[in-house]
Amino acid sequence: MIPGSELILNPDGSVYHLHLLPGQIANDIITVGDPERVAEISRRFDRVELRVAAREFVTHTGELDGRRLTVISTGIGTDNVDIVLNELDALVNIDLERREVKAELTVLNLLRLGTSGALQPDLPLGSILLSAGALSADGLMPYYGVDGVGDDFGTALSEFVTANGLRLPVDPLYFSPVLPDFLNHPAGKQLPRGVTLTAAGFYAPQGRSLRLPTRLHPELLDVLRRFDYRGLRITNIEMETAGIYGLANALGHRSASLSALLANRGAGTFSKNPAAAVDALIDLGLLLLTDRDGSTDAA
Ligand SMILES: O=P(O)(O)O[C@H]1O[C@H](CO)[C@@H](O)[C@H]1O
Ligand SMILES: O=c1cc[nH]c(=O)[nH]1
């Protein structure tokens, strides 16, 4: 039995932070950072059956083209992802009344639709990228005592950075997701793929400096840009994907992260029309989730 201090329920029986009850989420779940993006997505649903808002966690559940979907905001950062993934999992895989893990576990399909900064100059502003893997520079996953999948990538990166006379601020863990089947849709297969670096913050942790200097070496982003391990490059930086991939893997869920690239860190540019880029990202995400007949089996 999971004690009351670990599995915390509100007086109405809902999970502590998300304020959701079992049955209120679909098995296909879109996660976004920005709470306002939730309504931007659900207004495209044919109907919305549930709207719940608690802190940065806004959840809408509804239906599009006969498919039940949930969209939920994580807010910014993997500290919030920790809460969202654990409480979503509890909603389907823990009997909240008996406080026991269910004998039969449910696998969720998690699709992050986020924004990100490109590291590679050949990735145009406004384009969309699928994270084939995520490098954690944020600090969440070491608390879980689960290994990164394909840690070779992290080791090879550390060696490359050291060979270039620099150090990484944290030991990188690498997570490669089990992708939901709907990524086999032709629109998913043709997406550029790369490794996403998940940072602990937006400014210094991503090498940005306004009034305060960053302690990331000025050449580090360039070294990361040049790293290539078995054809995989580090393509972009954001703040949630490694937490989602790491926890989804550990909990047995499937996950994919799509990013609209709003900044180009090499060129020092930012999208002139971020709203259009996010719109295109939402269009693609909803196509993948609903046009399952367009998917094929070959991964
Ligand atoms: O667009 P979202 O999903 O919020 O994602 C990105 O944008 C935020 C920073 O502006 C971070 O959360 C980052 O990961
Ligand atoms: O550069 C960027 C752009 C969006 N989100 C980030 O975290 N970084």
Automatic annotation (TrEMBL):
It catalyses: uridine + phosphate = alpha-D-ribose 1-phosphate + uracil. One of its GO terms (molecular function) is uridine phosphorylase activity. One of its GO terms (biological process) is nucleoside metabolic process. Residues 29-265 form the Nucleoside phosphorylase domain. GO terms for cellular component: cytosol. Gene3D superfamilies: Nucleoside phosphorylase domain (3.40.50.1580). This is Uridine phosphorylase. It comes from Neolewinella xylanilytica.
